Structures are given as structure tokens and as C-alpha cells.
Amino acid sequence: MNFPDDPRIADAKDIPVHELLHKLEIYGLTEKGGEMQGPCPECGDAGHNPATGPCDRFNVNIASKQWFCRKCKIAGGDQIELVREVKGCSFPEALEFLCGEKPLNVDPEVARKKRKKAEARARAEAARKNKWRQQSIDDARSIVARAGPGSRGIVGAYLRARGLSLDVIPAPLGYLLKHPYVVKRGGQNVTMHIGPCMIAPIVDWRTGLVMAVHQTWVDINPPHGKATIIYNGVTEKSKLTRGSVRGNFIPLITPADADTMVVAEGIENTLAAYLPKPPGFENAAYWAGVSLGNMAGKMLKSEKRGQLSGLPDMSAEEAFVPPPWVKRLVFIKDGDSDPVSTQKQLECGLLRARTARPGLRTGIVPAPAGFDMCDVLNGKHKQKHQERQANE
Ligand SMILES: [Zn+2]
Description:
By secondary structure, the chain is an alpha+beta fold. The protein contains eleven helices and 19 strands. It folds into three domains: about 10-105, Zinc finger, CHC2-typedomain (DNA Primase, Chain A, Alpha-Beta Complex), CATH 3.90.580.10; about 145-245, no CATH class; about 245-390, Dna Topoisomerase Vi A Subunit, Chain: A, domain 2. α9 (about 340-355) links the parallel β18 and β19. Zinc ion (ZN) binds near residues 40 and 69.
């Protein structure tokens, strides 16, 4: 429920971050690189290791007013949303908390000026976001363009180290030798590692354009598994994406006469599904969906808080829909993530695809519970199963 004519909305969005935090009695945040950082108003500093430095999981951007917690994932775009989250209250209640009761008689001229100001601010914010988005897409394209062919370099060795012995390396995969691992920390770009990296383009199939890049840093030492990246005592993930991922996939293998598409989250799991060349899938395309959220696309909100509806929001523009040549779409379900929410997300993506492409056949193929496809291929599945039986 929105109240666009209420002049207090513009007033609320004028409240500086420092004042907002004071009103909400959120203390202990420090300013760094244009953001206020510190313990989270929701999850505090639970589970924080002080050896890694002060807790900085909760961030509020002083300029954009956007806020989020890296740990418990609360996030929002403005002052009113932060009040709603912290106080667990409704939109009108949050407005009243910030700006007092609704004035009975508002001078229409004052209201008009305030609305104009709010619109100008929204336009400036949209322009800022757009510029940032285009910059990250340009960066992604430049990385993909610079990469050498995956038939050379460390790509084959890395995939073998993950149990994937391919006769031919999929053409879209490439590599860079001295590729910097750059992450934004406290508003600053920090280079945490430089080394060999597998490069995969994330493509919008409608236009064929690279919209983002998927980067996997590889250990320079044999057997060339994932690189270990440790910064300030914290182990960072060895994979990063850059650019506009939403709605776009990594087209690893696409035979000319394909009518079936198999999709798993990661590059490794997608190739693990391809390698056994299961009967009935001889001419299938194998694309990686990058993340479960990206395979699902935007979901309608569930009526129950904290639960997933599993229903696609068909109005979302940036969500994956398979190309028209796909007659059968199969999602691989990783066994190593939460089974209920994983199922809901996969169902959401497949229902979107069926709605957009009537007549499309879809299915979910599960990897055994507790294992991802690479484990299965490497025989870890059997091994762990035997260990478990031996322990019983
Ligand atoms: Zn939190």
C-alpha cells in the first residue's frame, strides 16, 4: 500500500542517515567510504570472529540510503524501509514514527514542490545506478574479450581437478593468467589476489551479447583446483561475477540441432551432468544458470513471511526464459543446498518457462541428497555412503 500524495514521504526521504540511526537507536556504526558500517540491528554481531576486525556486516549508504546486512540478508532502499524492518511495523506506522502524524491540511503548492524534489532525487539515483551498471557490463565484456581460448591454459587442468575430464573444452570458456581478484570493501576496491582464472561469458541469448562474466580463480599449483583466497584471515570464495547477471545464463554447450536444455547452477555441475551423455540427451544443450536465484527469477511474495511462494513474477523483465528452440527444459537440483527452498526456486523458474513457452516440457533431476553432481562423478557419493554405513 502506497500513499503517494502524503508529503511526509518526501520529508522522510530527506532525513540524513545519522539522524535516522539515532532515531532508531542503532549505535556502534562507523563511517567508512561513504557508508555507515557496524553490527546489524537484526542479528547484531552474532557469530562474528573478532580476530577478523570489527563487525561491519550491516551497511547504510549515506548518499543512496540503501542498506543491507551481509549476514542475515535484510536489505532495503530507503529510510522508511529501515524503520519497517527494525520496528516490524507497517508503512503508515513507519511514516508516523519518522515524521509525526499526517497533517490535516497540506498547502497543495508545498506538496507539489516536495513531490518535484522527490522526483528529481529519484531520477538522479536512477542515473547513478544506470551508470554503475553500464560500467560493470563494460568491464565484463573487456574481461571476456581479453581471455585466451580455454583449449589452452589452465581450464582443462582445473576441470580435471574437479573430476571433469572433457575431450573438448567448451568453446565459451577462456582463461586469463594474471587476473586480479578485486572486491569492494568499505567503499574501496581491494585487490585480494592475482592469478590464473577461468573466464566464462554470461550471455543474453536474445541479443547474443555478453552481459556479465563468471570468474573462477584457479590454484597455480597442481592439481590446479580452486584457488585459496584469504584476506585478513577470512577465506573468500574463489568465484566472482561482474556485470548484469539477472536473466542471463552461461551457454556452455549448444549443439546446432538441440531441442533439449539442461541447466545446473554452476559450470562444474552443468558439465558433470553432460559428461555421462545420458540416453535421450545426446543433442541437449548444457547451460549454467549461475545461481539458484537466477534460475528462479523474481518470485511473487508469499503470504507467509519467511516462506517462498514458488510462483514466478511474470512482470519481471530481467528473468530467464528459454530460447524458442527449447522443447524440453531440465533443471538439475543440487543435493547440497536446502532441499525445500531449492525445490521452490527451481519450480518457479520452470513455471515461468512453461508460461512463456506453452507446450514446453520441464523436469527436475535431483542429485543425491547431500551431494552435488561433481561429488557424484568423483565417486565421493559412494565413498561417503560407505563411510556412513560403516559408522552405523
Ligand atoms: Zn543482520
